[in-house]
């Protein structure tokens, strides 16, 4: 014989229905909470990605500015090097002229070599060239002293040159 389930009372059915409704409400609340949490998480992640993109763009701009400044510095450096070579060539020309003049005043012919043409051509520019590694030939000590005196007396210079030539 089979036993039929006992008919539930109205209170038990209502309690079961209330418990089922309560469980369903709890599940809906949990789903809503999970959706809100997921939405917050997505928004936070999007803000983080946007922040990284903005930082990357800022760093790109800074890099471009640094590159531009470095290029400008390099151009200024090359111009200064070119100007230094031109001034060095001019100083060599002036030194030769001064030595020739001192020799003429002293009546002593001095063999002063002219400045090489390739140094004179540096005035025009073009591709940067390095100045020669060796400097001009050294002057005799007597003439060197003449060049560094504050107020040289021409007659002293003449007598020093005459003494130098007679050695």
UniProtKB/TrEMBL annotation:
Keywords: Coiled coil, DNA-binding, Nucleus, Transcription, Transcription regulation
Annotated compartments: Nucleus
Region (Disordered): 1-47
Compositional bias of kind Low complexity: 1-20
InterPro entries per record: bZIP (IPR004827), bZIP_plant_GBF1 (IPR045314), bZIP_sf (IPR046347)
One GO CC annotation: nucleus
GO MF terms held by the record: DNA-binding transcription factor activity; protein heterodimerization activity; transcription cis-regulatory region binding
Predominant subcellular localization, coarse grouping: nucleus
Coiled coil spans: 49-76
CDD domains documented for this protein: bZIP_plant_GBF1
One GO-annotated biological process of the protein: positive regulation of DNA-templated transcription
UniProt domain BZIP: residue ranges: 24-67
Protein name: BZIP domain-containing protein
């Amino acid at each position: 014989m089979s036993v039929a389930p006992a008919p539930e009372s109205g209170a038990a059915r209502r309690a079961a229905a209330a418990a089922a409704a309560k469980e369903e409400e709890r599940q809906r609340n949990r789903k809503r909470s999970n959706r809100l949490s997921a939405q917050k998480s997505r928004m936070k992640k999007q803000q983080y990605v946007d922040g990284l993109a903005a930082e990357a763009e800022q760093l790109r701009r800074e890099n471009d500015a640094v590159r531009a400044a470095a290029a400008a510095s390099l151009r200024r450096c090359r111009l200064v090097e070119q100007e230094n070579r031109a001034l060095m060539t001019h100083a060599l020309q002036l030194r030769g002229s001064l030595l020739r003049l001192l020799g003429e005043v002293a009546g002593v012919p001095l063999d002063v070599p002219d400045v090489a043409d390739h140094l004179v051509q540096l005035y025009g520019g073009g591709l940067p060239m390095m100045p020669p590694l060796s400097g001009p030939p050294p002057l005799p000590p007597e003439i060197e002293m003449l060049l560094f005196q504050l107020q040289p007396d021409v007659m002293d210079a003449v007598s020093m040159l005459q003494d130098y030539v007679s050695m």
